[in-house]
Each structure stands twice: as C-alpha cells, then as structure tokens.
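Hi R.,

Here's the chain you asked about this morning:
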Amino acid sequence: MSEDLKHVHGEEGFERQDLSAQAIYAFLISLVVGGVLVYLVVLGLYKFMDARQRARHPQQSPLVQQVDINTRIVSPDEIKKFPEPRLERNERIEINDFRLKEEQTLNSYGWVDEKSGVVHIPIERAMELVAQRGLPTTPKAGTVPPSAVNVANQAAERSDTSGTSRQTKPPGSK
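And here is the predicted structure, written out as tokens:
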C-alpha cells in the first residue's frame, strides 16, 4: 500500500500547480501601473480643485498696495506688544535660564509670601526635616481633634516651671 501512495514529481523538481514566474511578474507590473494611475488621478484631482478655488477667489482691489514685509524679523519693541506667553527667540538660552532659576529656587532660602510668613527652604534640608520629624498623620478614629483652647492649655502646662500642676476642670463640673 505504501508503494501506491508515492508522489511522482516532475522532472523540474517543483509542483506544476504553483504560480509561474510570469504570473508573479505580471502581478507586480500591474501593481506598479495601478499605483502610477492612482497617483495621476489624485494629482489631476488636486489640480482641478486648486484651479476651481482660484477661479472663485475674489480679485483684490487695484488700490491695495502689495508690500513685501518679512514677518520673520521682529524688533524687540514689537515683541513686547504681543501678549504673554510669547514665542521663544532662542530655545537653548531660555531653557538654560529657566533651569538655572529653578535650581536656585530649589537650593536656597527665601520668602514665598512674606505677609503670611511662608518661606521656601533648600530641598535637601526639607528632606532632612521630613526624615527627622516624619510626615504628618491623621488622628485615629474616635479621637477628638485638638482645639485651640486645649492646645494653649497643654502648652501652658508644659511651660509651667513652678512645679505645681494645675488641674483644669471642664465647664459645668464642680
């Protein structure tokens, strides 16, 4: 039975049912020709639409003077007329100035709001303070948040150096 199932190959060494080289070349040539035709159709369509738009465009008045102004050159006085934010004139210098200013802010002491007493400190010092003191935590559930009166009383008791402890009684108790 195994002798009957042997496949007989042609003399060339490939199956005759495959595509021939001529069919592949014909497909590639038709693909290139189709691509060129699509390009020409789209190009013609764009030229037609451009000519139609120009025909519909109104003519300028002959009284309008055509002035060739180079809008790429702008004087410093004209720049100040534009509202903020303005376009950059030299990106490298401006980004370096910005980074230098940020570095100075991160590594120096200074006022953020002098009236309310808010300052900024160097980031290294801020990290040291957080490492020493820890981050603020929220009170545990069921505890009463401290009031200004209680905080003041507790501070007064801690600062009392007389040695006598004052017992504060809640109002209304005898």
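One quick note: The radius of gyration is 43 Å.

Cheers,
M.
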